């Protein structure tokens, strides 16, 4: 049998969570599958593969992006950040994760990585968002467990704690 | 025949909670132990499982609702490099057995259709390949010739004797029909002053957890064993049923639970994914992962809730006393009957709600059509029941001119009437419904909202205030799946839950639970109970999940049972170990065991300061120093405790009494505030108030999370969620672009409060709380829309209230339609 | 749900892109933001043999005011993101309708990849941006190896997801005339859920004459036909009127004349006609207010 008739693979150099990769990818490989498969970063979850649910949201060059709607081949030269980049190797949670923990912003945890990455982008732009700003940024991320209220609270609280920490560090 | 006096024999009476004094950890918002791994993206869901050499499965689904499979040509698919197996239904049937079902009727079901497809999306062929992309290439290359048959879509039409038959093994599409009368129904109707009626429609919706169902199956052909990772909940409840389906002896089958990305009732059994992964691993000798994609999950899982047409009537005396209730129900079950009429067994727990309704007629027809089968979805059959009952109560209020809170108050079961035996036999444990209602009205600030309503009406805007007071039966008993049968296929069960606990030589407490992590909080609940019993910090308790080889018994989360059952099992195990530790400590301190108390994780001689032993002291002694322990004690500190359903009685033989099977009954009053755009039909939630009584609250933050999440699912049920089918039976809502669930934008601020009337039947007095939000919100929001559109005189009897339906209601009211 | 295999091409300049599109013709699909195309490919509703990714083509990401011959125009290149357009001061100043309609498209993360031109070229009959382009009397600039042409929005949309673009042609930009003082615009829609495609939406522009009467209006609807459509009967009814409540009501009543909406699970044809009338009234009222320079909610 012939080895393959599939089209030529594409070479990409991307940085994922600060690690540089030089990869040959099939053109049709979705970013979500590259992350979850070859790169073994299974924290990024796939919920609908239609861009509706937002579970697979990661940051591409800092922008919240549905990884089910992007081919890895498109990402040559970019930097990708996933949920695995947030917590420390010693188990220390990122302030956003800590806020989700303290405000019960998750139940089953499946939508959570997408929510966290969306929150990262928002808080980079808006240090202390109000609930409406959180809804505007994360409104396209579906959660079936929490009813959202505690997610909104978590993101607002994360903004406050991160700002306080920054001010404390400068003081 | 059972009576209220058939109480549990164990002394399990919960005492009223005095938080901070008698109890340290039960009732506190202990942060969730499950969180860190989930937050870090380090939990292992079934889609994250990778085994050496693992292949990936995909399914070719039927494009037709009803068709005969004339031929299947898999040759092109098999020729694709990377494809390792392509199986038709007939080929798969040589590897795995039909899917088990709980019905008495002969409704055979295989995971992959053989000869005939009966719903759109039903699997026709399955593929295993080296990756999912190639597996889907292969599906696309399979050629199937169909002979399209007439699709049976309308359940009422399906009941006609000459309707196209879904199953040739049955005489009719009515798989099950039964009329059950409890009390003097005819007499109550005859003596009624007023009878209000409704024809209500509750469409099918699906649980739609963010993670679909999946399994990784690995067959070892040499020792004939199979290992299965999955997100099923029944690995420690019905593993024998899975083994039978997969053709593996029960003692060579190992099922390993994964973290589960939500379920809401949809992943109890998931036999389809297990059969698909199982057939493919047997065909290839390699591990195979099959994870539904979203279309598979919506179109072809046991994910779908009730699909009912109600003709219902409520008979009332002149003063508004509710006398009798009749419910004539046609339920569209779809093409198969896996859980039989289980959703009606469930509804039988509380058909008369929180009211003293004396008689009940329950007339149910379960009808088969060319749609995906029903499974379970949060509410599990009691959800439309609450909808219809509360709509009737609102209608009675309107027709009889009695305020809707007042008519409820007049009919509530009073606190002194508990335990209360309902007409159909189930027993309610405790409650104070009027107190819940009063507090909800106060919390919502009803008078302010009425003023706001008046102000907005002057501007031509329509604000509505809803009200619903509903039951949430909790702590299910799986007998409900089959006990409506005269000759059930199975006897009554107690649906047990067990934990294994041990205290190690250094005093560390480990608990192994039989349930999976389904999005609930088993680790936190167990840790709180252990902390309560030993006086240690819940953070110091380690909780792990048992696979199916440990002998654990668990039906897991479902029917709002887990906290009740886990706290019972954990407390039992803790007491056993604590008592042994007390005996060892007493022996060591040379005092009577009655003089030893366990406080803050130490075992102290009562009244003797300084005389104490730590958990580690006793642990080391128990593990290693047999000769330093009492003579009749064996070494070690291990206990397995199985907590059977705290209070269930079998139904009477003639089914005039269904027995007590769902007796821990929570209650809630919800008051949603909506604004309706009468021109566009758009309903917007402005605020939401809920007062809930689920007995002793184990963990307020977590209970609130369950309630709020359920309310938002209820907002979906009220406004958005619906399976729609074309006349040809095509599913018009196969993705999240058509099957709509609420986003952050559709959700108002939700205020939840708790009152607590502990259950006398359970440990600590806890009741369940998992389904309460969704059991109440849909009917409460319907009430709010009615209230908003009162100037038009609309009557909501169909959900969801889509913009189009609302506009039609307003137009119908203009035209004088009923 | 995985896409079929395809060849991936990532041209670095426009000529290379046009050569590739010419070579592969109907076998190729252009990938810009990909927020619709990749979704279709995942579901295998689209399985192009070749995908031409234009994101690396220089010069297509310009958003600029063009003051050439004729009236000033705002020009958005093929890779201008929807989010960029929505937040752009130029767009806010010169084509506020585009920003207002754009804010209804999906959610911020989708809009930060999705492009304005991509939405127009995708020609979803329910989508907001094609409708806004139509209401603004905009045009599409298409380039192929044989040169450049402009296509009026009125002529561009030919059916559901189909346009008058020829194989080998690439939309390099869309252009809209600058919205002048005295012209008010508005976009309103009803969607089943925030961020979803509307069941029906209306984009309206109203220009008032010196005497306050309606000198010109364009009303475009989405979700109301097989393509973005103009409510010409309503336009005719309003034009020349005083723009008062009665005139708006009379125009709105004509908004569904001649429409043949596509029914789906979100709404029947009748309901869409109903919404077309209701929303046209609302859009016109707002646009007329704005044309008079009045603040919203005045």
From TrEMBL, chain A:
Xref: SUPFAM superfamilies? 2Fe-2S ferredoxin-like, CO dehydrogenase ISP C-domain like
Keywords on record: 2Fe-2S, Iron, Iron-sulfur, Metal-binding, Oxidoreductase
Q: Which GO terms describe its molecular function?
A: 2 iron, 2 sulfur cluster binding; metal ion binding; oxidoreductase activity
The pathway noted for it is: Alkaloid degradation; nicotine degradation
Q: Does the keyword Iron apply?
A: yes
Tell me the InterPro entries matching this sequence.
2Fe-2S-bd, 2Fe-2S-bd_dom_sf, 2Fe-2S_ferredoxin-like_sf, 2Fe-2S_ferredoxin-type, 2Fe2S_fd_BS, Beta-grasp_dom_sf, Diverse_Oxidoreductases
Establish whether keyword Endoplasmic reticulum is in the entry.
no
> Which ranges carry the 2Fe-2S ferredoxin-type domain?
10-86
Please report the name of this protein according to its UniProt entry.
(2Fe-2S)-binding protein
Query: From what organism does this protein derive?
Result: Pseudonocardia sulfidoxydans NBRC 16205
Automatic annotation (TrEMBL), chain C:
Give the GO molecular function terms. FAD binding; oxidoreductase activity
- Pfam families recorded: CO_deh_flav_C, FAD_binding_5
Q: Which UniProt keywords apply?
A: FAD, Flavoprotein, Oxidoreductase
Q: Which residues form the signal peptide?
A: none
Membrane-traversing stretches:
none
Every copy of the FAD-binding PCMH-type domain together lies at 1-181
Specify the protein name.
Answer: Carbon monoxide dehydrogenase
């Amino acid at each position: 049998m012939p080895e393959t008739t599939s089209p030529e693979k594409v070479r990409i150099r991307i940085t994922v969570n600060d690690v540089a990769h030089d990869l040959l990818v099939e053109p049709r490989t979705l970013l979500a599958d590259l992350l979850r498969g070859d790169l073994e970063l299974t924290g990024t979850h796939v919920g609908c593969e239609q861009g509706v649910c937002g579970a697979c949201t990661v940051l591409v060059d800092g922008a919240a992006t549905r990884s089910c709607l992007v081919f890895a081949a498109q990402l040559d030269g970019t930097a990708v950040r996933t949920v695995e980049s947030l917590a420390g190797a010693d188990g220390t949670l990122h302030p956003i994760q800590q806020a989700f923990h303290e405000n019960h912003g998750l139940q089953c945890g499946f939508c959570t990585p997408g929510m966290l990455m969306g929150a990262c982008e928002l808080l980079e732009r808006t240090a202390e968002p109000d609930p409406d700003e959180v809804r505007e940024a994360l409104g396209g991320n579906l959660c079936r467990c929490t009813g959202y209220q505690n997610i909104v609270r978590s993101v607002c609280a994360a903004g406050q704690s991160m700002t306080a920490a920054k001010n404390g560090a400068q003081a | 025949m059972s009576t209220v006096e058939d109480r549990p024999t164990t002394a399990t009476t919960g005492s009223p909670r005095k938080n901070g004094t008698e109890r340290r950890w039960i009732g506190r918002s202990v942060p969730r132990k499950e969180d860190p791994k989930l937050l870090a993206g380090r939990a292992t869901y079934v889609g994250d499982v990778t085994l050496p050499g693992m292949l990936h499965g995909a399914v070719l689904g039927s494009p037709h609702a009803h068709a005969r499979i004339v031929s299947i040509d898999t040759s092109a698919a098999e020729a694709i490099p990377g494809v390792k197996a392509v199986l038709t239904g007939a080929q798969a049937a040589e590897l795995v057995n039909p899917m088990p079902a709980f019905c008495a009727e002969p409704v055979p079901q295989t995971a992959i259709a053989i000869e005939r497809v009966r719903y759109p999306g039903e699997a026709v062929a399955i593929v295993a390949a080296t990756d999912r992309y190639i597996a889907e290439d292969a599906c696309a290359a399979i050629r199937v010739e169909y002979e399209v048959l007439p699709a049976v879509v309308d359940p009422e039409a399906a009941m006609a004797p000459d309707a196209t038959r879904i199953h040739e093994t049955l005489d009719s599409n009515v798989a099950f029909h039964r009329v059950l009368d409890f009390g003097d129904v005819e007499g109550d109707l005859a003596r009624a002053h007023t009878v209000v009626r409704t024809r209500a429609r509750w469409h099918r919706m699906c649980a739609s957890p963010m993670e679909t169902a999946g399994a990784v199956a690995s067959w070892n052909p040499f020792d004939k064993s199979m290992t299965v990772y999955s997100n099923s909940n029944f690995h420690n409840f019905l593993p024998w049923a899975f083994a039978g389906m997969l053709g593996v002896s029960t003692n060579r089958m190992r099922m390993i639970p994964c973290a589960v990305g939500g379920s809401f009732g949809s992943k109890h059994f998931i036999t389809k994914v297990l059969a698909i992964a199982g057939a493919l691993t047997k065909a290839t000798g390699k591990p195979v992962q099959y994870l539904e994609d979203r279309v598979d999950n919506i179109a072809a899982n046991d994910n779908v809730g009730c699909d009912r047409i109600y003709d219902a009537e409520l008979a009332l005396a002149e003063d508004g006393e509710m006398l009798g209730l009749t419910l004539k129900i046609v339920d569209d079950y779809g093409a198969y009957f896996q859980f039989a009429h289980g959703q009606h067994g469930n509804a039988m727990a509380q058909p008369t709600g929180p009211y003293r309704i004396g008689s009940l007629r329950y007339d149910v027809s379960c009808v088969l059509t060319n749609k995906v089968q029903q499974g379970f979805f949060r509410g599990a059959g009691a959800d439309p029941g609450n909808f219809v009952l509360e709509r009737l109560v609102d209608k009675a209020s309107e027709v009889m001119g009695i305020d809707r809170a007042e008519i409820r108050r007049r009919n509530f079961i009073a606190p002194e009437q508990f335990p209360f035996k309902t007409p159909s036999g189930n027993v309610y444990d405790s409650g104070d419904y009027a107190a819940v209602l009063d507090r909800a009205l106060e919390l919502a600030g009803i008078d302010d909202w009425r003023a706001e309503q008046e102000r907005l009406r002057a501007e031509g805007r329509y604000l509505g205030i809803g009200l619903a007071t509903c039951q949430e039966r909790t702590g299910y008993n799986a007998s409900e799946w089959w006990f409506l049968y005269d000759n059930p296929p199975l006897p009554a069960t107690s649906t047990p839950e067990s934990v294994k606990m041990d205290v190690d030589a250094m005093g560390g407490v480990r608990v192994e639970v039989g349930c999976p992590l389904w999005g609930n909080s088993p680790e936190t609940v167990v840790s709180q109970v252990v902390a309560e019993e030993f006086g240690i910090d819940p953070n110091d308790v380690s909780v792990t999940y048992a696979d199916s080889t440990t002998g654990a018994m668990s039906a897991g989360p479902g029917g709002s049972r887990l906290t009740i059952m886990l706290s019972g099992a954990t407390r039992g195990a803790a007491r056993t170990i604590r008592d042994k530790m007390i005996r060892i400590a007493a022996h060591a301190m040379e005092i009577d065991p009655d003089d030893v108390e366990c406080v803050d994780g130490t075992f102290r001689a009562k009244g003797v300061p300084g005389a104490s032993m730590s958990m580690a002291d006793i642990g080391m002694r128990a593990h290693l120093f047999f000769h330093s322990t009492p003579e009749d004690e064996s070494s070690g500190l291990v206990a397995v405790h199985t907590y059977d359903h705290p209070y269930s009685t079998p139904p009477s033989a003639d089914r005039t009494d269904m027995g007590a099977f769902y007796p821990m009954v929570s209650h809630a009053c919800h008051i949603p505030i909506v604004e309706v755009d009468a021109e566009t039909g758009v309903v917007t939630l402005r605020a939401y108030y809920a007062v809930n009584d689920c007995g002793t609250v184990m963990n307020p933050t977590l209970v609130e999370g369950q309630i709020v999440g359920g309310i938002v699912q209820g907002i979906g049920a009220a406004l958005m969620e619906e399976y729609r089918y074309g006349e040809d039976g095509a599913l018009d809502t196969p993705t999240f672009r058509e099957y709509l669930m609420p986003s952050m934008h559709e959700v108002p601020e939700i205020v939840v409060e708790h009152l607590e009337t502990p259950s006398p039947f359970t440990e600590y007095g806890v009741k369940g709380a998992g389904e309460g939000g969704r059991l109440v919100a849909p009917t409460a929001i319907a009430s709010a829309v009615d209230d908003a559109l009162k100037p038009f005189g609309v009557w909501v009897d169909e959900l969801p209230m889509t913009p189009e339906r609302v506009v039609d209601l307003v137009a119908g009211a203009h035209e004088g339609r009923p | 749900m995985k896409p079929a295999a395809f060849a991936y091409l990532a041209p670095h300049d426009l000529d290379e892109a046009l050569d590739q599109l010419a070579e592969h013709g109907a076998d190729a699909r252009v990938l810009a933001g990909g927020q619709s195309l990749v979704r279709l490919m995942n579901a295998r509703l689209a399985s192009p043999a070749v995908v031409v990714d234009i994101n690396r083509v220089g010069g297509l990401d310009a958003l600029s005011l063009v003051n050439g011959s004729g009236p000033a125009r705002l020009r958005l290149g093929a890779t201008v993101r929807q989010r960029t357009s929505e937040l752009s001061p130029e767009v806010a100043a010169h084509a506020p309708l585009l920003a207002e309609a754009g804010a209804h498209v999906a959610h911020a993360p989708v809009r930060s990849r999705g492009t304005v031109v991509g939405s127009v070229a995708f020609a979803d009959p329910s989508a907001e941006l094609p409708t806004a382009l139509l209401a603004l009397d905009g045009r599409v600039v298409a380039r192929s190896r044989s040169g450049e042409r402009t296509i009026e929005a009125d002529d561009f949309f030919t059916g559901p997801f189909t346009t008058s673009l020829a194989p080998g042609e690439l939309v390099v930009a869309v252009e809209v005339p600058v919205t002048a003082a005295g012209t008010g615009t508005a976009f309103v829609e009803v969607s089943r859920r925030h961020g979803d495609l509307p069941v029906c939406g209306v984009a309206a522009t109203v220009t008032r004459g010196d005497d306050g009467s309606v000198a010109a209006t364009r009303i475009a609807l989405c979700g109301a036909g097989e393509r973005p459509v103009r409510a010409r009967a309503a336009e005719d009814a309003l034009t020349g009127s005083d723009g008062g409540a009665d005139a708006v009501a009379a125009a709105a009543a004509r908004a569904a004349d001649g429409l043949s909406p596509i029914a789906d699970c979100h709404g029947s044809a009748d309901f869409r006609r109903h919404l077309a009338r209701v929303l046209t009234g609302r859009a016109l009222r707002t646009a007329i207010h704005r044309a008079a320079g009045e603040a919203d909610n005045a």
